[in-house]
Amino acid sequence: MKFKKFLLASLIGLAIANNQVFGVRAEKINWFFKPKGDNLQPEILGGDVIAKEHGALYLGPEGDKTVYLTFDAGYSNENVERTLDILQSQNVKGAFFILPGIIKNSKETVIRMAEEGHLVCNHSTSHCDMSKITNIEKFKEELSGVEEIYTRETGFTMEKYFRPPEGAFSKKTLEFCETLGYTPVFWSFAYADWDNSKQMNAEKAKEKVLSNVHDGMVILLHPTSKTNALILDSVITSLKEQGYTFGTLDELKNKSR
Fold first, then answer.
1. CA 80, 61, 209, 233 torsion: positive or negative?
2. Which of 48, 214, 222, 250 is catalytic?
3. 52-93 tens-digit pLDDT
4. CATH (domain of 247)
5. 158 and 71 belong to one structural domain
6. Residue 9: predicted pLDDT
């Protein structure tokens, strides 16, 4: 009897660790990908297709050598400006997922993003764990709050793309996005670039990006990163030389229909 209880407890623990309890999804899901190298597309969420089923964007079609640059920008520094300079000189458009702080403290930078043709998108108002929000009105407030600040301060309307902070979400998160008309956006490549006090060596970071390139690659970068500002221009040049083009989330959305 004790063995049976132990076995049952072990099975339940294993199921919870994999975000499922006897076939019923646990609330919180943490986004992850498993690189394969050799220009192969990575495995996303261990093969789970829940995000795809709800219209999320995170990977383009196989056979399409297009890369999509996305940036999470909670604040601004000189590296954000350098990133915009590089994108402008390379004639590449990106998507910037922003928080209220960057709008309030660096309004001109955010205006520049929009005026230079980049998509300015929603990263929530308080950068909270969206998987914990089970009420659609509270969910709506998290998204509309930053939008209202953006419109009031810049005169622009924020794009209806939403990236949950830290990639934490639930089935309800995806359902709420569908109901409210937002497209969730995740990624198929990212690396530890967000901590300015722990920046990866530039050459190592560049090699990490280039060795993981794949068809339909959706890259998540933090534009505040000093390393990213150092390598972005050469990364874009290298990818172009390899035959890759750069697309927008609007284009990816059309390809994913």
1. negative
2. 222
3. 999 999 999 999 999 999 999 999 999 999 999 999 999 999
4. 3.20.20.370
5. yes
6. 37
Residues 210, 94 share a domain? yes
Q: Which residue among the candidates 72, 123, 214, 215 is catalytic per the annotation?
A: 72
Spatial separation of the C-alpha atoms in residues 43 and 217, rounded to whole Å: 12
Residues 215-257 have pLDDT tens digits of 999 999 999 999 999 999 999 999 999 999 999 999 999 999 8
- Indicate the residue type of 4: K
Report the number of distinct structural domains present in the chain: 2
Reply yes or no on whether 222 is catalytic: yes
Which residues touch 10 (CB under 8 Å, ≥6 apart)? none
Find the domain containing 16 and state its range.
1-30
Q: Is 123 a catalytic residue?
A: no
